[in-house]
Design a protein that fits this description.
Radius of gyration: 17 Å
CATH architecture: Alpha-Beta Complex
Largest sheet: 7 strands, mixed
Structural class: alpha/beta
Strand order of the largest sheet: 3-2-1-4-6-5-7
CATH class: Alpha Beta
CATH topology: Spore Coat Polysaccharide Biosynthesis Protein SpsA, Chain A
CATH superfamily: Spore Coat Polysaccharide Biosynthesis Protein SpsA, Chain A
Number of domains: 1
Shape: globular
Number of strands: 7
Length: 232
């Protein structure tokens, strides 16, 4: 299940929350494996399609499944806790829809292992060529609200592509389960005075990802804001 750890290299686990991604998930997993990362945890968050079954067909992928859809944050937390039990020194989270480029994982890990950062945040808005204008606008509004509530300015508070050191994994404790989870992590970084850095990441907007139902809208945004205020 766990790949060898030569020359005392840190144990890196890739955690992927997934919901109804059966169409693309094998391609995403193969791309990650091709970069050399063989410790992969996929959390199927109550999918109604065969996301879990497709993932289980890929060697070196550990698949866990929520029986009901609990939310992206809940799936990420399940994966992180499982990775900790499996001896992870570093956990990298990324999305399951193919938007993230696995080649961006290595620079994140390098910043933790060689520069002693606790958290590395992938930022779409530091390299937003090709990013739809409405996504840029939504993210900037979200960044402003996170700064107003939590007091920490970041350029992409909603990014799901992040890397965490063992120290950060021990300290970060979140209570929210859905899309507000990513913002709550920012609060935890500020609360524990964790050493963090943002780096630009490539985001690939494909016909598949753009054809999916939008995850964030006014209704979900208001709910997210209410939960952020509640747990502040």
């Amino acid at each position: 299940m766990t790949a060898a750890n030569p020359a005392n290299q840190p144990s890196v686990w890739i955690v992927i929350p997934a919901y109804n991604e059966a169409t693309i998930i094998q391609e995403v997993l193969h791309e990650i494996l091709a970069t050399g990362y063989t410790n992969i945890l996929l959390i199927d968050d109550g999918s109604t399609d065969d996301t879990a079954g497709k993932a289980r067909e890929i060697e070196n992928v550990v698949v866990l499944r929520h029986m009901i859809n609990r939310g992206k944050g809940a799936a990420a937390k399940t994966g992180i806790e499982a990775a900790k039990l499996l001896g992870a020194d570093i956990v990298v989270t990324l999305d399951a829809d193919g938007q993230h480029n696995p080649s961006d994982i290595a620079p994140m890990i390098d910043l933790i292992t060689h520069k002693n950062y606790d958290v590395v945040l992938g930022s779409r808005l530091q390299k937003c060529d090709g990013m739809p204008w409405y996504k840029i606008a939504h993210n900037r509004i979200g960044n402003f609200l996170v700064w107003m509530i939590y007091g920490l300015w970041v350029t992409d508070s909603q990014s799901g592509f992040r890397a965490y050191s063992e120290h950060a994994l021990h300290l970060i404790k979140t209570r929210t389960d859905r899309y507000e989870y990513d913002s709550e992590v920012i609060y935890e970084i500020a609360r524990h005075k964790l050493r963090y850095i943002e780096i630009p990441i490539e985001v690939r907007y494909t016909a598949y990802s753009m054809g999916k139902q939008h995850k964030m809208n006014l209704k979900t945004g208001i709910k997210m804001l209410a939960k952020m205020l509640l747990y502040d």
